[in-house]
Amino acid sequence: MKNNLIRRLVSVCSAAAVVCTAGSSLPVSSLGANAAQVDIEDFSISDVRMTDDYCTNAFDKEMDYLMSFDTEKLLAGFRDNAGLSTNGATRYGGWENTNIAGHCVGHYLTALAQAYQNPNITSQQKDALYKRITTLIDGMKTCQQHPRGKTGFLWAAPVPSDGNVERQFDRVEVGKANIFDDAWVPWYTMHKLIAGIVDVYNATGYAPAKEVGSSLGDWVYNRVSKWSSQTRNTVLSIEYGGMNDCMYDLYAITGKDNHAAAAHVFDEDALFQKVAQGGRDVLNNRHANTTIPQVHRRSQALYRP
């Protein structure tokens, strides 16, 4: 690692802390001015090697945990949603058997991608991780090619009684978000899924991951591009995770303008206009799962030339 890595990390963390704690008291323009004076570079997980006994032991246990999952069970929800055979597998319980099913799989893909980049793993471990990644992505691609929803749709939640697999997205567009009867934050779930797919592509370069992500991004665009201003405001009033963040990351690997356009639909411009005005804390009581990705993405825009 470079000698000034710690300085850079401190600079980034300090900037993030200022954004989160100062609320509206720090104009966006001053953030940009400070950013121009700071030398910041990205670095990869593969640049960081853990040698402490506690950390290496924890990672070994994490590897055991990651390898304990049954990929057939992880894919069962997607296959069921697409009307395909689950090969005798059943869904995992908990969240993967609810209306937010699939979001844990997104987290799992991200965990696999991060472990794959760890410089401490053996070649055998890396091969095993790659096998799991490709198995999941290939299974998702097959499901995506047989959607009950519109082209490119990929989803793992149980099919509702009316057979409309996109029902949750329809419901939040009219402000219905009862987690038992209507919808349970479907865009939050979609964020986790797209982020996981992007992460494994960036970690491995596995082309089908890019294809799955691209088709899913097209589905997102085709849906959100039809929203009126009122519908957009309604959807953004219900937790949607970091949809702007993951769609900008998807755009970075596909280069498709419609993915960037879809990302911008989820940008809360009104929030940053309030922050820029100053004078009061506009971040208090806002949901962290959506606000932090908003600040993160805007910070990247400020700090990158």
Q: How would you summarize what this structure contains?
A:
The protein has 305 residues and is mostly helical. The chain is 61% helix and 0% strand. The radius of gyration is 20 Å and the shape is globular.
Question: Keywords, please?
Answer:
disordered N terminus, 305 residues, 0% strand, mainly alpha
Task: Give an overview of the whole structure.
The two termini are 23 Å apart. The protein is mainly α and 305 residues long. The longest helix has 22 residues. Helix content is 61%, strand content 0%.
List the helices and strands and how they pair.
Blueprint lengths: L4 H18 L5 H8 L17 H15 L3 H12 L20 H14 L6 H22 L22 H6 L13 H19 L2 H18 L4 H8 L6 H12 L2 H9 L3 H9 L10 H16 L2
Helix pairs in contact: 4-6, 5-6, 5-8, 6-9, 8-9, 8-11, 9-11, 9-12, 11-12, 11-14
Number of domains: 1
Shape: globular
Evaluate the radius of gyration.
20 Å
- On the 0 to 100 scale, the average pLDDT is 85
What's the story with the biggest beta sheet? Answer: none
- In terms of DSSP E residues, the strand content is under 5%
Element string (H = helix, E = strand): HHHHHHHHHHHHHH
Span of the ends, CA to CA: 23 Å
What percent of residues adopt helix (DSSP H or I)? Answer: 55-70%
Count every beta strand, where a strand is a DSSP E run of 2 or more residues.
Answer: 0
Sequence stretches where pLDDT stays below 50 over 5 or more residues: 1-33
Individual helix count? 14
The secondary-structure class comes to mainly alpha
